[in-house]
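A common beginner's mistake is to predict each chain separately and then try to dock the pieces by hand. The better habit, illustrated here, is to supply every component at once so that their relative placement is modeled jointly.
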Amino acid sequence: MAKQKLKRVDLIFSQECSCKDIIAEALKKPKEEIVKDLIDSGLKGRGGAGFPTGLKWKMAMKEKGNKKYVICNADEGEPGTFKDREILDRVATKVLGGMALAAYVVGAREGFIYLRHEYRFLIPKLEMVLERFHEWMEEFDLDFKVNLFIGGGAYVCGEETSLIESMEGKRGEPRNKPPYPTNQGYLDKPTVVNNVETLVYALMIMRIGAEKFKSMGFEGSTGSKLFSVSGDTPIAGIYELELGMTLDEFVQDFGDGDAKAVQVGGASGFCVPRKRFAETHIGYQGGLKGFSLPTGGSMMIFNSSRSMYNVLHNYLEFFEEESCGQCTPCRVGCQQLLKGIEAVKRGEKSQKYLNDLLRLAETMKLTAKCGLGQSVGNSFSSIVENFREEMIY
Amino acid sequence: MTTKMINLTIDGKKVSVPEGTTLLEAAKQEHVKIPTLCYHQDLCIAGNCRVCVVEVEGWRVLPAACATPAMEDMVVYTNSPLVRRARKDVLALLVSEHSTQCTTCYRSMNCELQELAAEYNIDNEIYINLLKDKNFTIDKSSWAIEKDESKCIRCQRCVRTCAELQKVNALDVIRKGADMKIATFFDTVMSDVVCTNCGQCINRCPTGALTERRYIDEIWEALGDPEKHVVVQTAPAVRVALGEMLGYEPGHRVTGKMAAALKHLGFDSVLDTDFTADLTIMEEGHELIDRLKRKLVDGEDIALPMFTSCSPGWIKFIEHNYPDYLEHISTCKSPQQMFGALAKTYYAEKKKIDPKKMVSVSVMPCSAKKYEAKRIEMNDSGLQDVDMVMTTRELGHMIRQSGIDFKKIKEAKFDKFMGESSGAAVIFGATGGVMEAALRTAYEVVTGREIPFNGLNVEPVRGMEGVREASVKLENVLPDFSFLEGVELKVAIAHGLTNAAQVMDNLVIGESPYHFVEIMACPGGCIGGGGQPIPTNEEIRKARTKAIYTEDEKMTIRKSHENPEVIQLYKEFLGKPLGHKSHELLHTKYTRRERV
Amino acid sequence: MRKRESAIVTAVEKYGKERKNLLPVLQDVKRVKNYLSRSDISEIAAEMGLSSAHVYGVASFYHFLDLEARGQNIIWVCKTISCYMKGSNDILLALEDALKIKVGETTSDGKFTLLQTNCIGWCHKGPAMLINDEPYTELTPEKVTNIIDEFHKK
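With all components supplied together, the output reads:
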């Protein structure tokens, strides 16, 4: 096994300090200071969208009204991502700590953990943690109560407005944005929706300070992140690593020596071919040249035995099923991309048709109503462009 | 409080709009029309078709103009190469899951998708035809509405109409992904769900996915059959909208031309539903007075308020949703059905025609009338009273097919013995019209005097507000009606089923102080009916309504009880209002239905 | 007088009639009654003052709100890429063999329904499946046969 080159970080799962103490200390700070710390730290949403957390909390804080909500997005569904499950299993208290912080800053009295249906087995544990948490809230004199909301099974409900629609008793169809949830969210009230991991980092930044967090990663992609590693790797699992590593470094630590491609960010992320490993960093600066979006941190490694056609086909089948169906580019586009590559493979359409599909993928990125439809083109374009021969023969 | 103004740039021009204006509306202000499909003036914003996308400087995506509020310093391009490319792709995607058999489609030449596809040069060869591998259904179970899944672009206009505008909720979105579609409860056939047949969904469908059940071919056949005596009746709202199918602006009255065209098509008798509208007022007016007498004099626990019964969409709505309140509905049939019963009895007798050789056709602004004609109660003549109902749209098509130059045709009059009518009858077509007609007659019957409104125009019951109230004091009444002395007759008018539901919900909680309520299922009343020319919007409905009241003012007879043919009918055939013969032929009953 | 189904009345009383509680109500009723039938959906709609079409539209959106009768135990085998690479197809075949049914079907004794689902979050330990709420990971054809046997013994 290759020598471990990438430094492991231990913020998320560390037990070196009592969670209760961290929360207690944080709640003593003025709200504005907490917001400033988060903004300074450069913490961005760890679920995939990457919105600056401090800014999100600040926007909700500024909204008038005394009915606000904090929602923990635990609808982890991106293929290849399993880190939120682990967080909720091992350090759920930290998640609640992050929620308490958000509630304190924005002025929310009610919170929810939107838990995906497939994680129902965590309910008994979470209920126990919640009971203890509510006791702490009383001790700290913070009027904040959190309830569980269990999803019904829909990947698209990971999108924040779709999640909110689901919580309002409707189909999980994303809303038009603007308005954004911080302005008009759950029941049309200001709502902060944060990923599980983001909430833990928000709490831990109170513990280690913004400077320490900023000292990891680099500008625009500060701090560390949990990566869910799977596929052709001898050490599949969850690893907390600094942002900014190159895929070369990553594959050296995690690959099986024969890595052909790495899918960064799940089905809605980018596929990076071996020839680009050295030039690709993992961070929030979008686009494939030089950087890649971590989108929740899913890292799937494919070795040379894998058919990239099968991989793409699997992703497109996934999107075709999971699309909410409301907007034309996504609902019809996903079907066209899937049928398109099948037709090219079968020889029914010439390989030039792939160019039409690449153009369609671009249109989907620009015109789809939500992140799901906008991201289908990421894996499509990156796989077709880099593995074109595998689409045809 | 002054509205904040937003300054932005659209296609290079500086524009200033009130805060809250969408980019679509802002562009319209600058006389730039951004193409849309899921957007409809009457409905809430969806933003799902993605046809109206525009380019905004600095934005990573192309937002939907209909759903994006104008923001300070925005720089917007509505027709850049990027936008055009995106729009073409979106349209190509829609066409790829759409049946392109345009020549056999009822909405051909009036289809919003067809128009845009033609404008942008889109056919179904750009992408893979998705219909080939799909199991789509064409639901022809309903007598009124046909639903063709192969033409649905999933804009959800019908769902929003059925839910917000009509509160019927027969249609909804089901499943997700590639399986997502518009359907009913458990994807049941339309005939077996709470659909009221109001057809508002048809009026707002941009394509041929939702249409009315058509009888054009059957009617041509009947007209061409020398053995058949084909009579036709036309509803008031048809004559102020038919012109839209034949080159006229909305609100152009074409009564005479319509009658002439119908004669040219070959109908043996061109008669008028307005005749039986007057008759309905006679029967219903007396029924109201009778109910009041039984309550005030006999102390009976009679159901009040009484509701009008001429809107079959409303009837099915109350049967499904408020089945405990059916006794409130007037037992009078609608004018269409009264006509049907009399055509094969009274008319047949007078013209010495064998009713079995008659085909009774009606032209209606309505889709629910197609259902009404087939209700099992509607055969008091011994045969099906009304054989075929066609919509204003179908008549428009027939006239086009006949080759008549509608604009040049010379006007004609309706035939006897069911062709005479009053202004009170013609206003049935507008919301508040039935009420006004009823008041003009009831007031005079009870007091012996004309209703004290200038020009007989009972303004308080007119207008487009969803629920309206009015009251008329009955003073110095005739001796026979002494029990009504001093009574303030309270009435209400509602149009659109959401407003009907409001009135009913108030009744349920005991807050309904009225004696008589007029309900029309369609927004605007019959002029906005499910069989009227498409498109529909507030402006068009207002124009048609204005025409209705103008038509009323120009008529010599303005009150139902002064219609000479109606007087003759009672003298020769019926006897008196609510008499034995009336009850046999002109009254009906209702059915409790499930809420699913 | 409308007949009121007890599972539904209980669920609606527990969460409240407001529309926002529709998802938990649907889930509770589905657990008690195994799946959501036509009459369940229209009952729930009536109890909550919603339209039947809307409740059906919502229920049909979510993967785990079964609208078809299911067996006592529902097996969901993950078919997304990481599990696929680890051999989820073999697992599916092994299950079809052990249960004597094809995917999508229910065993004749009503004990099992075999279905597929998308990524359930065990990609590092694939192939994986859920039986009801419990995850089963690092599966092999032998392992699944044993799991089924254990269920039969219970």
